[in-house]
Amino acid sequence: LLCLPGQTSAAPVDPEPTDSPAGESSGEELWGPASPGPQLLCDSSIWGAIISLIDGLKLQNRLQVEDVFLQHHQVSSLPAALPGCKSNKEACLHWVAEGLQTYMVATKHLESQSADNSLPANIRYLCGLLISQIKQQMKKPEKVRVLTSSEEEQLLKDIDRLDAFSKRMTALSILDQFRAFLSDSVRKIRQKEKAKQKRNGISYERTTQRN
After folding, report:
1. Residue 159 covered by a domain
2. Does any domain span residue 1?
3. What are the backbone angles phi and psi of residue 2, rounded to the nearest 5°?
4. What is the domain extent for residue 144?
5. What is the count of structural domains for the chain?
């Protein structure tokens, strides 16, 4: 259950994980069932693993809090879902990777509101794995910008609230915003990957017929 200690400070988030928390799988084990052709990012089981952890925290701590009430505690500095994703896949992946890094920082606020710090830590670890997988699909992964220490501090300062009740409501709102970001991101990435897969299939079929 959520407790209400004071805000804790932490070092900058490293989006590239090294050692996994106890009991966690490696990145290679977190892809979904193999499918013909190149591995699709939308098939990675990390999306579902992170969402499951978020749902667990929400289930433990939401109690009778109404969604409408939580909207008053939303954090405006957190990235929203992909803006239509009308851009090319590279731009979409860039948006998601940078958004994940921002949410990784925001989970530090969850640690100060949770009796079990391992859950936010595991979420950050899985986010790091997912960012690595996203970069593997990008043409220019070096373009993904990492938040500086001062930017992380400012984000946590924006999230922090004076009274204990607001801190708790903000933590729950972060979980809601993060889940919506993940669900929307994987859905739109799936749309782009499936559309490309279909185009490639049609192109291959036409080439075969000509030959």
Report:
1. yes
2. no
3. -70, 135
4. 42-210
5. 1
d(CA 77, CA 18): 28
What's the count of helices (H) and strands (E) in the chain, helices before strands? 6, 0
- pLDDT in tens for each of the 211 residues of the chain? 333 233 333 444 445 544 555 444 444 444 444 444 458 999 999 999 999 999 888 877 665 455 545 566 677 678 776 665 566 889 899 999 999 999 999 998 888 777 677 889 999 999 999 999 999 999 999 999 999 999 999 999 888 876 788 888 888 889 989 999 999 999 999 988 988 888 887 554 444 444 4
What CATH number should be reported for the domain holding residue 54? 1.20.1250.10
CA angle, 206 as apex, 201 and 211 as ends, to 5°?
125
Nearest-5° Cα angle at 102, 146 to 22: 95
